[in-house]
Amino acid sequence: MLECPTCHRLYEDGQTTCPDDGSPLIRPTDPRAGTVVDKYRLMGPISSGGMGSVYRGEHVLIGKDVAIKVLRKEFQNHEQIVRRFLMEARAASMIRHPNIVDVFDFGVTVDGCSYCAMEYLEGPSLADVLDEQGALPLYRTVNILVQVTRALASCHEVGIVHRDLKPENIILTPREGRRQLVTLPMQDEDDLVLEKEPFYDFVKLLDFGVAQVQELTAALDEESRAQGIIFGSPDYISPEQALGRKVDHRTDIYSLGVILYEMLTGDIPFHGDTAQEVILAHVQTQPTPPSDLRPDLDIPPEADKLVMAALAKTPEHRISSMAEFLQGLKRCLGKTLYRRDLHRALSRFGDAVRPPTPTSEDTDEKSALRHEISTFFHESRKKPSRVSIEAIPDDVEGPTEELDELKRLLRED
Q1: What average pLDDT does the chain have?
Q2: Do the first three CATH levels of 2-119 and 126-337 match, i.e. the same topology?
């Protein structure tokens, strides 16, 4: 058998290149390549880590692509590790959310190693994208993290805390773009830009190997604390995790705040020569606001505020829920935004937007958009109250009846 080093499929001897991607085929070096485990044929390894390896696989009866995660043989007799490996499959299967990887089978290989079968994902990790591109556009950052936030909210609703959030555990599956992007003219030389998004990031959250699952992991967590084991990755760990304390859903909020910081600036908030120095910084050092670190990127105040609230050192002073984090994300608007957010963006920083001037090259869609923006400015001068309503946040505190009446009055002619 020969293996494609790009897609990890196996082919019979005699074929020289992969018919899917044209890569030259090589002789597989992993002894498991080509073997059958229960109803799955293992192909080449996709990735390898400290706990085990993930293989591309195929259901031998229906030909469906799957991913097979196999625990390292040296850990098979380590009861706590095997129990956590099983817990990963149980945790993911309990949630059933479209933005969480689907784990659907569990078993033991012929050489005695535990494995779990999950859906096969096409696309890079967020870590790969950040390594290649650095800071991401604000609209793309918000789009990705809205999906992550909703997935985590579903986890927290059933008592599951991920505890190891990091860009490596967020997979971005590219899909065909379907929405319109608007870039507002902010300078005299700028012009209104209307375009279709080139692609759409569909998010999958994975790796629940150290998740805290209601009472199911209580005994395991006590054992780990007694042994001085700290869960999480140094660059994204929460202060309470770093101190070995009991954690709740707010530890995921902190880690997500670090990820947001990195997506906005292209860098993590804390550095050190050793992992211990980075962990200590999470406990003791206040982060530099993203806009201070990267003043060249026009990071909006709303994004600064959200990051700093998520990175509070104590859980009590932190953002309290993923619902609150989601509302904060929706307030983070830049000069390039999705078409649906246009009026919200104009209400937020309309004073900085230059009213667009029609040109002879405008399409019908662009002309309609220019007219809509011009109408906004006209109504803004004519009746400020009609504009002010757009700036009322959805989560503002106060009696619902009074807010509804206020909005009704603001809309009246």
Answers
A1: 85
A2: no
Range in 259-263, 321-325, 342-346, 402-406 with the lowest mean pLDDT: 402-406
The per-residue pLDDT for 216 is: 53
For the cut 60, the answer to whether the pLDDT of residue 223 exceeds it is no
Report pLDDT for 284.
95
| Domain spanning 126-337: CATH 1.10.510.10 | yes
Q: What is the 3-state secondary structure (H, E, C) of the chain?
A: CEECCCCCCEECCCCCECCCCCCECECCCCCCCCCEECCEEEEEEEEECCCEEEEEEEECCCCCEEEEEEECHHHCCCHHHHHHHHHHHHHHHHHCCCCECCEEEEEECCCCCEEEEEECCCCCEHHHHHHHHCCCCHHHHHHHHHHHHHHHHHHHHCCEECCCCCHHHEEEEEEECCCEEEECCCCCCCCCEEEECCEEEEEEECCCCCCEECCCCHHHHHHHHHCCCCCCCCCCCCHHHHCCCCCCCHHHHHHHHHHHHHHHHCCCCCCCCCHHHHHHHHHHCCCCCHHHHCHHHCCCHHHHHHHHHHCCCCHHHCCCCHHHHHHHHHCCCCCEEEHHHHHHHHHHHHHHCCCCCCCCCCCHHHHHHHHHHHHHHHHHHHCHHHHHHHHCCCCCCCCHHHHHHHHHHHHCC
Of the two residues 200 and 48, the one the predictor is more confident about is 200
The pTM of this model reads 0.82
For the annotated catalytic residues, the residue numbers are: 164
Q: Is residue 413 predicted with pLDDT exceeding 50?
A: no
pLDDT of residue 270: 97
Q: The domain 2-119: what is its CATH number?
A: 3.30.200.20
Domain boundaries, given as residue ranges, for the chain? 2-119, 126-337, 340-411
